[in-house]
Amino acid sequence: MLGVDPPEHTRYRKLLTGKFTVRRMQQLSDHVADITTTHLDAMESAGGPVDLVEVFAFPIPALVICELLGVPYHDRDFFQQHVAAAVGGADHSMEARGAAFAAVQDYLRGLVLAKRNAPTDDLLSDLTGTDLTDDELSGIGTLLLGAGLDTTANMLALGTAALLTHPDQLAELRNDPETTDRAIEELLRYLSIAHTSARTALTDVELDGQLIKKGETVAVSIQAANRDPAKFHEPDTFDIGRSAVGHLGFGHGVHQCLGQQLARVEMRVALPALVRRFPTLRLAVPVADIPLRHGLDIYGAHELPVTW
Description:
Layout: H1 8-17, H2 22-27, H3 29-46, E1 50-51, H4 52-57, H5 59-69, H6 76-87, H7 94-117, H8 123-127, H9 134-148, H10 150-164, H11 167-175, H12 180-191, E2 196-200, E3 205-207, E4 210-212, E5 217-221, H13 222-226, H14 260-277, E6 282-283, E7 292-293, E8 300-301, E9 305-307
Antiparallel strand pairs: 1-9, 2-5, 3-4, 6-9, 7-8
């Protein structure tokens, strides 16, 4: 779906758009809140220091995706473990990631068949009533995992790090719920974890005096766009007081992120809940020692040690 143009792209997009409306995603808010509370309770019981990626940032979107796809409860531990390995931490080899990814794909193929035989109240079951093939359905499941789990998990981790290193902004978010939406949009702009995209010209086109010939591919830096001083005042400053409307954190055009409203719901619920539950939350290592993810499609942190 990410690599095709209309009309092929339109066929998939049209089937999925209605599943990701603002209203439908907001209906998930209570479920996201329950998952968040459960993980915050576990953090509080265990005590610090903890790896926030492992205990908070990854499992919350993973369980939300499980709910969306209709993964049965008895399979969710297996599913999360293999997805975590497929995404790949600092201790996972490419071979291990490939094997885990294959296991996830096999699982999703089986899940599609199960939904065809006994539909439940979830996105995959809804889509079995369309003309999509089993391969297309399992591919959509894989896409939703790749696009909706790794991204949100790293936004929750790096978003927390950004707030902890800007205590004035953190205090504002903690004390004033009305700042939440602005804070989330500013984090999406400031961090730009889906950092690079690419487009190929289908015909000769001139952009700002630069001729791009048919067939040439342009690498697009989303990070550079979101730090454009012509669009954002003092763009290298993290400021939840600004209006970050118009950022390209979710891309642009027909390929703009389908699940952006779901990501916003998860961030709006989880981040304020974390900083309010643990008012003394702080990094457990120097900023320079956070193991960051380099060379991957999604920027982020392999681990985020915190304590309180």
